[in-house]
Amino acid sequence: MRIDTVLVPVDGTERSMEAVEYAVAVADRYDAVVHALYLLGANAADALQAGHVEAASVAERGEQVMAGVRAIAAESDVPVDHSSAYGFSASRLSQHPGSVTLDVAEVLDADFIVIPREPETDDPEAVIVKAAEYVLAYASQPVLSV
Fold first, then answer.
1. Number of Cβ atoms within 10 Å of the Cβ of 20
2. What is the model's pTM?
3. Domain boundaries, the chain
C-alpha cells in the first residue's frame, strides 16, 4: 500500500487532536505528509457571516489548533500542511462536515483518512462528530476511525 497524504479533519476538540496523533503515526510509517483540515462549525460560520465575530478571531482560533497539530507532528518530523473550511452552509444544504472532508480528500488526492468518532457533546466546536459516519460510509480511500 502506498500512502503519500493522510487527511485528518480537526475541530479543536481533544478527540480530534488524538486523531492527529494517529494520522502522524500512519504518515510516519509510510513517509507521508499529514494534511489537517480545520472545520468551522455551524455556530462559528453563522457568526462570521453575520458579522458577529471578526474573521481575525476565527483565524486566530484556527492557528491555535494548527499549532497543536504541528507540535504533535514535530515529535516525528512528519510534514504537515493545512486548510480550513466551513463545515456547514446555509446556501448549500448538502454541505456538511462529512461531505467537506470527502471533497477535500478528493482535491488533495488523499490516500488515507483518520477521523475521530466522537460521542455526542455540547461543545459548540465539536464538528467532526457529524462527519465520522458519513466518511466511513462513503470514502473511497481507507479510513481509520479512532
1. 26
2. 0.85
3. 5-145
Give pLDDT tens digits along the chain (146 positions): 899 999 999 988 888 999 999 999 999 999 999 999 998 766 666 556 666 666 676 778 888 999 999 999 998 999 999 998 866 555 555 667 888 999 999 999 999 999 988 655 566 556 676 688 889 999 999 999 99
The three three-digit cell numbers of residue 55, written as one number? 474573521
Q: At 12, phi and psi to the nearest 5?
A: 95, -5
Distance from C-alpha of 49 to C-alpha of 55, rounded to nearest angstrom: 9
To the question of domain 5-145 being in CATH 3.40.50.620, the answer is yes
Which pairs count as long-range contacts for 77-81, CB under 8 Å and 24+ apart, including other chains? 78/24, 78/27, 78/28, 78/32, 78/33, 78/34, 79/33, 79/34, 80/33, 80/34, 80/35, 80/36, 81/33, 81/34, 81/35, 81/36
Q: Do residues 113 and 135 touch, judged by C-beta distance below 8 A?
A: yes
